[in-house]
């Protein structure tokens, strides 16, 4: 998928009917389960996380597949309107110090089986879709057990009391954007409490581009923060949870937003200790990295692998395909991050030991004699591997040239996969 930049069975097969059938049989095989595919997401992420502070960023995206009343493909409703498809909930591991992508941690993929008649607040957590925010966080504890610290980051949908009560632990923290006003232990409201906090400083923050209509821009933000104590919501579904939970509320508000731009107004709750403004700004910076998971979802869909164009007939195969697509999109994301040399990651987060050996041999062949024609990155780093892949894709390698884009990397990966196959045949004796 990475090399051909597609999820289409026919294109993945390279025009060969036998290969297309093989891919189809793989997805159809009952021994290929969605749980095992998702378990495979973290095979390289867990080792890469050892000793680091990892931001475990989680979010959900809707994969809208084309259907008709006569051809529902076993897919349930998503979002509003008549759309049908699957939901992908993923957790992405990111290095807190460098912002580099370590890979997928865990997640869940499903399609809805119908509408639930019982109101949301009358159901136990185990019978709600929102349970995914908690179970994904709990699974991350196992995958990221070797990390020095883990901070789970979520947007507004992940802001519910059970998550605050069940997830935090030793060196395991939360940062969540507030969804709605809450009642505090002292009878006040969350929003009213923030208005009483003192101004703690101002800072310019570079906001990444989200869509073509929302380009990169610099926002001038005012900061205030303070301790609050959340009160447990009423209702039997919450009776087993602690009555109160102490957290820190950080609020940043944009001043002088550009015309036709929505001003930034983030209310963030965190279990991290925040003693001063520097610590508060650090929390804001970590939350800003949440946009990386949106970039991952774009690579899965319209700006990359175009998963939503798949014509597979059944929901179970589409769910498996979505899991494989997520893994492929992460590899692409990692190579794009490494192309400018700012990534400090090892090549092993995207390539196997055998593939790295092949990369070494290729590098020795394509490097020139002058310093400008040499691979400038540390050997066996992801940036080193990305430089080699880009050269195979047609990039000239000079620092003054435009950085290689996704298409160049794709062409380079295609060449690399062919060369890897040839390397595997090097010791085969031909009659």
Sequence-ordered SSE layout with sheet pairings:
Blueprint: H1 9-12, H2 17-28, H3 34-40, H4 45-49, E1 53-65, E2 76-77, E3 84-95, E4 101-110, H5 131-143, E5 149-154, H6 161-166, E6 172-177, H7 190-195, E7 201-207, E8 217-231, E9 244-255, E10 265-270, H8 277-288, H9 291-300, H10 315-338, H11 353-366, H12 382-392, H13 406-424
Helix pairs in contact: 9-10, 10-12, 11-12, 12-13
Structural write-up:
The model has no long low-confidence stretch (mean pLDDT 88). Helix 10 packs across helix 12 (382-392) and helix 12 packs across helix 13. The protein is α+β, with helices and mostly antiparallel strands. The protein folds into 2 domains: 34-303, Transposase Inhibitor Protein From Tn5, Chain A, domain 1, CATH 3.90.350; 340-424, Transferase Inhibitor Protein From Tn5, Chain A, domain2 (Orthogonal Bundle). It starts with 8 loop residues before the first helix and ends in a 7-residue tail after the last helix. The chain has 13 helices and 10 strands. The radius of gyration is 24 Å and the shape is globular. Helices cover 33% and strands 21% of the residues.
